[in-house]
Design goal:
The protein is of the alpha/beta class and 298 residues long. The chain folds into two domains: 198 residues, 2-Layer Sandwich (Nucleotidyltransferase, domain 5); 67 residues. It contains ten helices and eleven strands.
Length: 298
């Protein structure tokens, strides 16, 4: 049996050296371990939620998965501290659509409740929380657990330009394949293990782990520009430019808006003046950091 295993490894290594083949290995979650003594590291948490719907104000979290990891100043992941996985029974039946999407049934969550104290203890020493769609996950997490309101957040989906670095898109399964792995498990914590390997992957364009790029982006300030009272007939121009619509139901302006880096603000204001308002304008601007970005409190 051992000989067969060694033969397969040798075959995989031989194939991977050829430009005509790509080898994918089954993702095996890293085993939690204590930090190496004397190594200067910081701690992060990868997070994934499954919910009963898309509305963070009324839908419920039915599964939470987290992986806590240590990383060095240059963004290299050096170990896993621990994992967290839990179900939660919602106030009503899980829809057939959600079950088809997540694989989670009413029977799986029956009788389960989140332990807020355990979740807070798991997260409290992390300096950053990362999700693969923080614009979705942060809003839900903050509604359930106040500890997440005070954390810096990063988004591995939107804060890395994956196409620029040789990937065709930002879907997690595809990125995992690009990092050389495949995965058969599909619980929330399994997606966190997958994201860990994606962030540990050295980008061929930079020679550094993807996490390093994400951290650099997350540390930068961005500016949210609100195109308040923009002409309705020009909404398609705003959409093509990357603006999104806020319907005003969550206390934010009822307006199109876009998030840009600080260096791009002048160009964006020039666009609004020349293409949208046809006059001098002073749109509402909000400066965002990792502590406020993706939050519904902004």
């Amino acid at each position: 049996m051992l000989s067969t295993s060694i033969d397969l490894v040798a075959m995989a290594e031989a194939l991977s050296r050829s430009a005509d083949f790509r080898v994918l290995r089954r993702l095996v979650p890293r085993i939690p371990a204590s930090p190496v003594a004397g190594q200067e590291t910081k701690t992060g948490v990868l997070l994934d939620t499954e919910t009963t719907g898309l509305d963070h104000a009324k839908d419920e979290i039915i599964e939470l998965g987290m992986v806590k990891f240590d990383y060095t100043a240059d963004g290299r992941i050096v170990g896993v501290r621990g994992t967290f996985s839990a179900f939660n029974e919602p106030g009503g039946p899980i829809s057939a659509e959600v079950t088809a999407l997540t694989g989670i049934t009413d029977e799986m969550v029956a009788g389960h409740r989140f332990d807020e104290a355990a979740i807070t203890a798991f997260v409290e020493d992390a300096v950053i929380v990362i999700a693969h769609n923080s614009g979705f996950d942060r809003k839900f997490a903050e509604r359930y657990w106040p500890v997440f309101e005070h954390k810096a957040w990063g988004c591995s989906m939107s804060e890395i330009d994956w196409r620029k670095h040789g990937f065709a898109g930002a879907q997690l399964g595809y990125l995992l394949n690009g990092a050389g792995f495949f995965q058969q498990a599909h619980r929330a914590v399994d997606d966190c293990h997958a994201l860990l390997e994606v962030l540990a992957f050295e980008l061929p364009t930079t020679g550094a782990p993807a996490l390093a790029l994400l951290l650099d982006t997350a540390r930068r300030k961005t500016v949210r520009i609100w195109a308040v009272q923009s002409p309705f007939e020009l909404k398609d121009s705003l959409k093509r430019r990357g603006y999104r619509w806020s319907d005003g139901t969550d206390g934010r302006p009822k307006s199109w808006y876009v998030d840009v880096g600080e260096s791009a603000v002048d160009d964006e204001l020039a666009f609004l003046k020349a293409e949208i308002y046809l006059r001098d304008v002073e749109p509402r601007l909000q400066t965002l950091t990792a502590f406020t970005r993706f939050s519904c409190r902004v």
